[in-house]
Amino acid sequence: MNELWGEEKEKTEEITHKEHQWYKEAKFAMFIHWGLYAQLAGEYQGQHYWGINEWIMRRAKIESKDYAKLADTFNPVNFDADAIAQLAVDAGMKYVVITAKHHEGFALFDSKASDFNISNTPYKKDLIKQLAKACKKKGLRFGFYYSQMLDWSEKNGFGNDWEFNPDEADVQKYMNEKALPQVKELVTNYGDIGCIFFDTPGPIKHEQVLELKALVEKYQPNCLINSRIGQGLGDFKTLGDNEIPEEPVDGLWESCDTHNNTWAYSKLDFNWKTPKEVAHRLIDVISKGGNYLFNIGPKGDGSVPEVSAMILRETGTWISKYKEAIYGTESMYLGGQTQFAATQKGNKMYLFIKDWPKDNKIYVPKFNSKVVNAYFMDDKSKVSVTNLEGATMMNLPLRMPDPVASVVVVEFDGKPNINSDKVF
Ligand code: H79
């Protein structure tokens, strides 16, 4: 099952040939799941489908001819590409990745390769073009998600086994006639593409991955490709959906995360992560060296759920106070506990304290390098540091200065260097 849906952590080769510093420094990004399913919002023919709504076609076993009717009513007049790009900026995000085509098979862009696309809706206008332009204007890198194997609208696509006989599917034909031409459209018509999020490689073969990769790289030589292209061939790893690793991961990698319990908008789901939870998950990811790709699911009319947008802006307010501790930092692993986590840059360690200790003391590992200064990042007030036999003790004030997470800057006489015998 895991292998089929591409959920396993796949190996990636080390990249030396592509420009990727921007990706390493970015840390926080916006994922957008949007398609015809947004109109259903968790309900089909009076039935409620709680959970991931972008899968509603499969979960409700909707036949493709019925599902296609959703294109006749897709008219997202409240879609505002500039407002979405501004939301990403306000949230402190550095790149945006949108579903150009999810498993349902519908393209949010004007495609010559398949009529099942935005041009054949009452709305007509290319959504990818608008968003790519808006992102560029605001200095955000732009990327897209593309479901390269699963396509439930095509009898030759992979995955629609409730309507078509999987044994008769000619997946290579689907790739030649739809996936490859559409990916070519996406890498040629929308300016610079920072990264591509392929998904669920399923039974994709090595040669098929190579062909897809070569196509992307022919037109966008610096475009970073994720590991879910399949067969261990990506430039950066995508961990499992909603997965945050226990320990640091080597190389370039990303955790993708939902805001509630679905990627696509569902009117049934109010389980939003709070700004504090979003910030804590971001801290977790960056302390282990990754990027945090955080999802929003616009509604069928194109608007972003207001609560989701508010929570993101609030998270962005917190981030804006601690930029130096977040962007362009490296992982700093202080052991597997949840009270605090850290990043590092130069001779500084940035210690994020998520849960305030009852006795106002926290114990981090011993360092080989010497502490020369320690202070709260926001008001610069000093923190006293005591070297104990097996640990470094930080003496904190009575109350947590920042209710989301406080950041202590610890300066060393060199690069922070943990005494690895003393990590607990
Ligand atoms: O785009 C998002 C998901 O739709 C996609 N990856 C993220 C980024 C994804 N592709 N495959 N999967 C997720 C695995 C999905 C498995 C499940 Fe189900 C879908 C679990 C519940 C619904 C399939 C149908 C297995 C059980 C029922």
Automatic annotation (TrEMBL):
Cited function: Alpha-L-fucosidase is responsible for hydrolyzing the alpha-1,6-linked fucose joined to the reducing-end N-acetylglucosamine of the carbohydrate moieties of glycoproteins.
Any Gene Ontology CC annotation: lysosome
Top-rank taxon: Bacteria
UniProt source species: Flammeovirga aprica JL-4
EC nos: 3.2.1.51
Protein name per the record: alpha-L-fucosidase
Entry keywords, A to Z: Glycosidase, Hydrolase, Signal
Full-sequence range covered: 26 to 449 of 611
EC primary class: hydrolase
